[in-house]
Write a structure and sequence with these properties.
Blueprint: E1 2-7, E2 10-13, E3 18-26, E4 33-39, E5 46-52, E6 58-60, E7 68-73, E8 78-83, E9 92-99, E10 113-114, E11 118-123
Parallel strand pairs: 2-11
Antiparallel strand pairs: 1-3, 3-8, 4-5, 4-9, 5-6, 7-8, 9-10, 9-11
């Protein structure tokens, strides 16, 4: 029903910036929420940021706020994650996800669709 493809990951040095993209296809709705999560080896998947598709309201994990910015381009059905001042602890696979109802933005199990992920590696 909804397909998500992430891109923009790579290997960078600490302090560098990356912009991740997530292109959505298939059936989408203005009421959907799009979010970014990440998962490091041996760790649970954690919430990074989310944006409501209609109003563009944004939500961030406390540890990401100030360095990461989420945005969306409704015309392109694409959500972005701008990551600045990257640290080695940001190394993870980053996933784009869609939730078809509002609220509970931080909870992994509330999201309905997931992309395959894109690897971000930050060296010291």
């Amino acid at each position: 029903q909804v397909q998500l493809v992430e891109s923009g990951g790579g290997l960078v040095q600490a302090g560098a910036s990356l912009r991740l993209s997530c292109a959505a296809s298939g059936r989408t709705f203005s009421s959907y929420v799009m979010g970014w999560f990440r998962q490091a080896p041996g760790k649970e998947r954690e919430f990074v940021a989310a944006v409501t598709w209609g109003a563009g309201s944004t939500y961030y994990a406390d540890s990401m706020k100030g360095r990461f910015t989420i945005s969306r381009d409704n015309a392109k059905n694409t959500v972005y994650l701008q990551m600045n001042s990257l640290k080695p602890e940001d190394t993870a696979v980053y996933y784009c996800a869609v939730k078809i109802s509002g609220g509970y933005y931080t909870l992994v199990y509330k999201y309905n669709y997931w992309g395959q992920g894109t690897q971000v590696t930050v060296s010291s």
